[in-house]
Amino acid sequence: IYILCKGRVKLSTSSREGQTTIVRIVKPGEVLGLSATVSASPHVTSAETGQPCQLNFVKAAEFLHFLRGNGEARMHAAVHLSSECAHAYQQFRSFLTKSAPERIARLILDWSQDDSGTVTAHGIKISLTHDEIAQIVGASRETVTRTLADFRKRQIAELHGSTLVIQNMPTLQRIAAD
Q: What pTM was computed for the model?
């Protein structure tokens, strides 16, 4: 398993046709590869860094030996795996039941929250292209560009360089409502 200590890692998966979906962006403190290690199966995602990162790792055999002897660690691993499954289900459900603007609004809201759940004063630093945002929300790059232009026109949210500023939080929340 890998533990991300510094930086961000993009986890993605690709179809046979070469279509890529970004599964999630991993933040410092998160674990990568737990499912593959516990199930002794290949990784189903690819990891890519876009900035300098620091990762620590634990060999599979050592980690599994540790889990066998530590009930609390097994419980934490089970909670982590359950959380991964819930996230995958939520993403799948969103792809099937939400429009692209709804998915983009939800993504912006998710980005807007720091650890305490509050919106930052200076906006959200976005280090992803429209194509990468499209890969996260399961839409085309053109749809993302049109949606962001519509949000700007309606004064909901606007990109200033690589900083996204939310101008109308209540409207964004209504668009993203579950």
A: 0.76
Question: Mind listing the pLDDT tens digit for each residue in 8-62?
Answer: 899 999 888 888 889 888 999 999 999 999 999 998 899 999 789 999 999 999 9
CB 152 within 8 A of CB 136: no
Beta-carbon count within 10 A of 150 CB: 13
The dihedrals phi and psi of 124, each to the nearest 5 degrees, come to: -110, 125
The string of DSSP letters for 83-104 reads HHHHHHHHHHHHHHHS-HHHHH
Phi first, then psi, for residue 51 (nearest 5°) are -155, 165
CA pair distance 88, 135, nearest whole angstrom: 15
- Measured CA to CA, the distance from residue 50 to residue 63 in angstroms comes to 28
